Amino acid sequence: MTEAIPDYPFEQPNALEPPREGAETRATCPVAHVRTPSGDVVGLLTGYEEVRGLLTDPRFSRNPDRKGAARMSTTEDRGDVQPALPG
Q1: Which terminus of the chain, N or C, has less C-beta within 10 A?
Q2: How many CA atoms lie within 13 A of 1 on its CB side?
C-alpha cells in the first residue's frame, strides 16, 4: 500500500512553533514527496547533505519558467516575479 502524499506547506500551530510534520520528516526521510497548493507533487529536502547536494547540482534551478517547474498556486500570472538566482 502506498502512503498518502502530505500537503505542503505543513500546518503551523502558531507563529513561534514549527510544524510537527517538519521534525517528523527530517527524522525519518531527508527527501520526501509533498503536494503543493497547486496540486503538484515535489521533493522536499530536509537533510543538510541533501540540500547542499541540490544547491550545487546544475540540473536544478529556481527559474519558475523552466519546463516542469513546480508551482505554488494554480494561477499562471506571476506578475513581475523574477528568479532570485540565475539558472
Answers
A1: N
A2: 2
Any residues with CB less than 8 A from the CB of 76 and at least 6 apart, and which?
none
Query: Is residue 71, in this structure, part of any structural domain at all?
Result: no
- Tracing cell 497547486 back to the chain, one arrives at 38
Q: Which domain holds residue 29?
A: 1-58
The three-state DSSP-derived secondary structure of 24-55 is: HHHHHCCEEEEECCCCCEEEEECCHHHHHHHH
Number of domains in the chain: 1
User: At CA 50, angle to CA 35 and CA 69, rounded to 5?
Assistant: 40
Read off the pLDDT of residues 27-78 as tens digits, 9 standing for 90 and up. 999 899 999 999 999 999 998 999 999 999 888 877 878 777 777 677 755 5
